[in-house]
Design goal:
255 residues, alpha/beta, 5-stranded parallel beta sheet, 5-stranded antiparallel beta sheet
Length: 255
């Protein structure tokens, strides 16, 4: 079960962004990595997108002009640095690569802990750096994302990067994937929870196990997932407190 890499590329130059997209696809294929690539055009778009989506790698320009309400470009600024600072605070595990023509900013860029700085004038370095980063994350994903669900004599491999939540259905649980597909396992939701809570699944409702990776909003009444699905929270205080503890532990692990 191969991991999927979520990659965002950001640049205000649409032509360069198109070239960069093709280059990233080429490097990913060469390294046997399956990727979902999102194209964005400003630092504001980048930070807004990453607040609501899980991202593995960001390739961003540094000098991108901000856009006023009238849609006219204002004085260029260091939008890439601003976005990197905010995103590192939100999720330090997201890897950032700066791709910029401003080579004089290479030294300054390392304040923001990027994986590398690549000059737009010579993208050959991108082949090596992005390839190395993909393999690094692939090892981490393979090591941390696969857990086993054992039912009787059967053992199922669960990819926690794919399974957003489980829902009980009589003697079965249905696994709902991030890509919209579903799988079914003959297992009680209680048995599944006892085996999967260590992988950051929370028992938020008597019929649902939720993967903390896909939670966008969580309070004592409601959980909202990254696909905007809303699920009511249990009234069982003991179960709710355990869910809050697991979710808090998961969030602390991202820092």
């Amino acid at each position: 079960m191969e991991p999927i890499f979520k990659i965002v590329i950001c640049d205000d130059d649409a032509d360069f962004l198109d070239s960069l997209y093709k280059k990233v696809v080429e490097i990913a294929m060469r390294n046997n990595c399956k990727c979902e690539i999102t194209e964005l055009y400003s630092g504001n778009e980048l930070t807004d997108y990453c607040k609501n989506h899980s991202v593995d790698i960001i390739l961003t320009d540094i000098d991108m002009p901000d856009i006023s309400n009238t849609g006219r470009y204002q004085t260029p600024n260091m939008e890439g640095f601003k976005a990197a600072k905010e995103l590192q605070a939100e999720n330090p595990k997201t890897e950032i690569m700066f791709v910029s023509a401003h080579e004089e900013l290479a030294y300054q860029s390392f304040r923001y802990r990027p994986f590398s700085f690549v000059s737009k004038r010579d993208l050959k370095m991108l082949d090596e750096d992005l390839g190395e980063l993909l393999l690094k994350i692939k090892k981490r994903k393979t090591r941390n994302s696969l857990v086993h669900l054992t039912v009787g004599e059967n053992s199922y491999v669960i990819n926690t990067d794919e399974v957003m939540y489980f829902k009980s259905d009589k003697h079965y649980i249905n696994a709902y994937m991030a890509d919209g597909t579903e799988k079914s396992y003959r297992c009680s939701i209680n048995d599944a929870y006892n085996q999967l809570k260590s992988a950051s699944y929370i028992f938020i409702h008597r019929s649902y196990l939720i993967n903390c990776k896909f939670i966008k909003y969580f309070n004592t009444q409601l959980v909202i997932l990254s696909n905007d699905l809303e699920i009511n929270v249990t009234r069982n205080d003991e179960r709710l407190n355990e869910a809050k503890e697991i979710f808090g532990r998961y969030k602390r692990g991202l820092r």
